[in-house]
Amino acid sequence: MIDITNQPSRKIRKAAFLLFFLLVSSNVFAQQISGVWFNENYMDQGINMSLQGTGLKSLFFFKAFAAGFYKGQGDDSDLLGNYPKRIEVEYFVSIPGQKLNNFTIDIMKQNTSPADLEILKDEVREMGKYFVDLKPGDRFSLTYIPLVGTKFAHNGQLVGIIKGQEFAKAIFSVWIGKKPFDSRLKEQVLGLN
Question: CA distances (Å), 172 to each of 24, 25, 191, in order?
Answer without folding.
Answer: 33, 31, 16
